[in-house]
Amino acid sequence: MKAIRFRRIAVTAVIVLAAYLLQCTVFPSLEIAGIKPNLMLIVTASFGFMRGSREGMLVGFASGLLIDIQYGEMIGFYALIYLIAGFVNGLFEQMYFDEDIKLPLLLIFVSSLLYGTGIYLFTFLLRSDFNFLYYLNRIIFPEAIYTIVITLVVYPLLLLINHKLEAEEKRSASKFV
């Protein structure tokens, strides 16, 4: 049982690191008009609604901490934002069905909008930059749409990995019964 738990943790860590590396290396070249998709938010939200609030928070904290180390002016800012995103998406675990892609797309879209709004509130508004509509139209909304487009490619891969891990956990659990 411990081996399967370790395997899930290892696979999750590899996914988070791979998403981080892709976001830092490949995605800047996919930038369109200064907007790039948020792969770390896709991973955090997906783990939240697929595995629950606890795992969503852990993945979100790890993702945010990596972003803090790379880009942040202070450690913990993005970690907190991603942790909250993972927790909120985890609240929808009971409503989540694998076959229905509409809920994951909606949750990731709303998460992206709230992420952008949170970044605006805590970084720009506190510096007396009151041009929210400009930021919404030029950054938040286009980034949310671009993130949804990338979600259509990334989410099925995350779902496939989750199915394989759950199938292995069920096989292991049936051996003990």
TrEMBL record:
The chain crosses the membrane at residues 75-92, 104-127, 139-161. InterPro entries: Cell_shape_determin_MreD_prd, Cell_shape_determining_MreD. Keywords: Cell membrane, Cell shape, Membrane, Transmembrane, Transmembrane helix. The gene is mreD. NCBIfam families: shape_MreD. It is found in: Cell membrane. This is Rod shape-determining protein MreD. Signal peptide: none annotated. It holds the Pfam family MreD. It comes from Ruminococcus turbiniformis.
